[in-house]
Amino acid sequence: MDAAKPLAGIRVLDFCWVLAGPLGTRILSNFGAEVIRVEPSVERMFPDILPDGQTDRNLGYFHNLVDPGKRSVTIDPTTPTGRGLLLELAAQCDVVTDNYRPGALAAMGYTYEDLRRANPAIVVLHMPGAGSKGPWAGRGTLGNMVVGASGISYLTGFPGRSPRGMGVAYPDFTSPYLLATVVLAALQRRRATGAGEELELNQLLATISLIGTEWMQYRHTGEASPPRANRDPNYCPHGVYPTAGEDEWCAIAVEGDHEWAAFCRAMGHPEVADDERFADHQRRKTNEDDLDELVRTWTAGADRWELADRLQAAGVAAAAVENLRDALEEDPNLARHYQQVVHPFAPDTPVTVHGEAIRVQGYERRALPAPEIGADNRYVVCELLGRDEAAYRTLVDDGTIRTVERNKDVLLA
Amino acid sequence: MAEAPLGGLRVLDLTDEKAVFATRILADLGAEVIRVEPPEGGRLRRLAPFLGDIDDGEHGYLHLSHNANKASVTLDLTRPEGRALFVRLAGTADVLVESGRPGWLDELGIGWADLHARYPRLIMVSVTPFGLDNPWRDRKANDLVASAAGGLLWVCGSPEDPPTQAGGDQAYKLAGLAAATATMVALTGRQADGVGAHLDISIQDCVAMSVVQTSNPGIYLARGRIPGRPGMTAVHRCQDGRWVTLNVAVPRYRVFLEWLAEAGVESDARPADLGGPNGAVTLHGLGRRLAATMDRAEFLAGAWRRDIMSLPVNSLPDLAECDHLQFNQAFIDVDDEVIGTTLGFPRSPVDALGGVGIAGAPRLGEHNAAVYGALGCSADELAALSKSGVI
Fold first, then answer.
1. Which of A374, B34, B215, B268 is within CB 3.0–4.6 Å of A324 for a Cys-Cys bond?
2. How far, in Å, are A132, B16, B32, B268 from residue B367 at the CA level?
3. Which of A31, A132, A173, A198 to probe by mutation at the B interface, max B CB count within 10 Å?
4. pTM, to two decimals
């Protein structure tokens, strides 16, 4: 396969907004699909962070994170003329994506019937938060709400604490993979059947699938597991231990007797490996509170990076708990993960983004900058849809193609 | 069911808990997924917890939930006869997914270079804690340690607690999702020239992708801030002790304040106070006070009537009782004849494609005869391999 663009030839008409949807079409774009993004109106654009001293929305950290290599049009999808253009464009696309509330795309004038009439082979993927059917149909949701409703929040944390959940809008980062997987699987199916289809990826149900093991256990025993409190039945000790420095920690996971002995040696306490209370996994588990207390005294004065290095050298899984600065400046293993994109119009203002997590061995993928908002209006209207320059000017003048001022009204996160 | 997207494709599954979710997804998409396990059974089968506390290789919940829809063969890859048979088997496969230590298959002479030279069509996906050729490639990590290194632990949990691991081993889930997507990308890309590729999935990178918002680089690089716990959160406790999430969008500020007044929560906040730099804190405080005045059902109904975004925070028992989930038949019970009981599954992560069925996990080596027989192994050959412990 072409490592640079294995998805070349796939064209996506992308109505996605906020994070979950655009991060999904980002994967398609990173691997060479042509993703044509229909920009939301200025009021609905995702709040962004701009580099220090900058006011140009095209330099936004989020914009460049979620839209790398995509095309951008500002055709107003809600006007009759704009709708006509986008349906005409759909005839030349393979996929249409959105992550609006259920029914919102149809209400904008793009029912599956409309899209299918324009292109019988079109694959349409909707990705609402909680699905289009049932008591919650039509409800707006955000990722942090979906993770709460999924059951994950109740399995996370320590007994007696609030079910705060994961600190991230988690489905916004799992649904993108499913968007890409489902779209590519539907295209695979289309190769066999020749037919397009309308699909709904219910993010809530998909998020619940991420705790299938815990659900199966609950279903069988009728007893809900308490929050895991950083523990794991297959490891002991297993936890996040305080190290020198304020709010600095090291995560450690020890599996089996061999690693236990190695851990004790590496911590300078080989004699504890022979302690009866901790002689095997079962006994370590029984006495885990005492063991954790002991380990905390061992780690308390250590440097978290040095401790992780030492434990890894001894064959024990360990890592410093990394914050954002650590990830950007300290961790050598993330050096390829973060990448800088540079826009030709701002050569002195690189924007740091997360690169593509899926790597092809032997190919070094460089993150692409996001398009300037509306940069591809002319490409779509003139090249793909065959309008001449005069027709294009008319579309601009009558407001079908919206003008987005790059330095005005930027919502800041 | 609708035509299975990956019908007719074969996947060899050498994953352990780190990536077994990926091959479950591929199985749900209709691929024939064959777990290739050591004769004594793969590691996944011996991971706790166990159904009925029975640690016999067939009752682990991780195994039962992740190996549904798959087949199982046994094969001792440490022996030359086992490796020879593996090479023959790989010739029938489209995809090989593995999550061993970097280089372990190369050391056995059945790594990417060996297999690619022999079978250019084969796609291989390797899931490792820190990537195949990064500086930390030889380091170990489980779900907790990868979550620490990827920055997720740091933003997760309460400020008064240590950084906190998510339930359900979400670092593994993120890596599994990425590996499944990687497979779909490579299967699509292979159609152009018939040549496979080797995909490299670092669990740490996958975890780092889950903090692109909470710990976006711009927060530090442009603003000089380091976000901490609890990261993004918006949970409130209702009068009956049950919890909800609440998000009030800008256009609903006024309606939200009217709701407070109706509920008798005194506040002199104006809509403008809910936005701006301190708005989130104000909003959170008001939400907390409002929730405390009523039961959860009343709170949700009140929010929805006003088109304010709110959902319950569900415990596992809540999931079973939730009317929305019942309406959507979110859970499927499967009678497992091997285990002799009913097993509960959530709907498949790729249920969007329609009609994904769930069949129980295979017994160890259940498909030896069928799979090796189709390779051309005679009954006598199979008996000999079995006798010598290769399968």
1. B215
2. 40, 19, 12, 70
3. A173
4. 0.98
